[in-house]
Specification:
Layout: H1 2-22, E1 33-38, E2 41-45, E3 57-60, E4 65-70, E5 84-90, E6 95-98, E7 106-112, E8 115-129, E9 135-144, E10 149-159
Parallel strand pairs: 3-10
Antiparallel strand pairs: 1-2, 1-10, 3-4, 4-5, 5-7, 6-8, 7-8, 8-9, 9-10
Length: about 170
């Protein structure tokens, strides 16, 4: 009987030690990206603007415009990337931002290898709009003026301090 209690005690101590020293698994909270399918081809943009911010980011710009900017995971290290996505939308909160001509609530510009296209009919749903240091998250889909189609678009970008970047 003493041997049985000793074995159970040893198992309990070993289990407790493993739990205490390895900790609980945690969700990755620093993964930022803009990903979507362009005419059925999956693209993942997970870097920020070269020499400015290392991860995809968003911030409130002067006035009522919020922007986010991302370059792809195969960044070349150039001062200004040759491939990127830049999104502006009028808002500071969670909402749906459709393109509404002549005034646009949403402007999306996608440049791939130096060739660019603007949104033609794009809708974006912002589901999380955090404070500085938190995230801006949501989904988007639609068509571009070059005839391309964006589907299954989603983004999770870090919100950096306001008015700290202008892509112009």
């Amino acid at each position: 009987m003493k041997r049985f209690i000793f074995i159970i005690t040893a198992i309990c101590i070993a289990s407790l030690s493993i739990f205490l020293f390895t900790g609980c698994p945690t969700a990755t909270t620093d993964t930022y990206y803009v990903k979507f399918k362009l005419d059925g081809v999956s693209l993942n943009f997970d870097k920020g603007f070269t020499n400015y911010e290392s991860k995809p980011f968003g911030n409130e710009m002067t006035g009522s415009l919020t922007s986010f900017f991302a370059t792809p995971d195969d960044e070349t290290g150039e001062t200004e990337p040759n491939t990127y996505i830049w999104v502006d939308f009028d808002g500071f909160s969670t909402d749906t931002y459709p393109i509404t001509f002549p005034d646009s609530d949403l402007y999306l510009y996608l440049q791939i290898e130096g060739s660019g296209a603007n949104n033609s009919d794009v809708t974006m749903q912002v589901t999380v709009y955090g404070a500085v240091g938190e995230t801006i998250e949501g989904t988007f889909s639609g068509s571009l003026d070059d005839g391309s189609t964006i589907s299954e678009g989603e983004f999770r970008v870090i919100r950096i301090p306001d008015n700290t970047f202008s892509p112009d």
